[in-house]
Specification:
Blueprint: H1 6-13, H2 19-23, H3 25-32, H4 42-54
Length: 95
């Protein structure tokens, strides 16, 4: 997934790059953050898609699946308080 191709990149910058290096799955899974999952083969990918879909309700009237948790509901997560700065104009790394 990219706007222009390797030929244009070479013409403009002189850098040689492949289509995968410019916008392949690894780039978006590891660098850009556009995708959250990347798999080595189609079989694994489809199995994981099936699992993700199993987490959704079957229709709009059904509740999503629930699971018991050993994590106390009233547990404080103080580390979360510092993830986003209080000043909305201050930049931060969301990764």
């Amino acid at each position: 997934m990219f706007i222009t191709g390797p030929d244009v990149v070479k013409a403009v910058t002189g850098e040689e790059i492949t289509q995968n290096g410019l916008g392949g799955a690894d780039v978006h899974a590891e660098t850009s953050g556009v995708c959250h999952f990347a798999y080595d083969d189609e079989e694994t990918c489809l199995a994981e898609v099936r699992y993700l879909l199993s987490l959704l309700p079957q229709n709009n009237r059904e509740n999503p699946p629930a699971a018991e948790s050993e994590d106390p509901a009233d547990r404080r997560g103080d580390a979360l308080l510092d993830l986003v700065p209080a000043d909305g104009n201050r930049p931060y790394d969301m990764r």
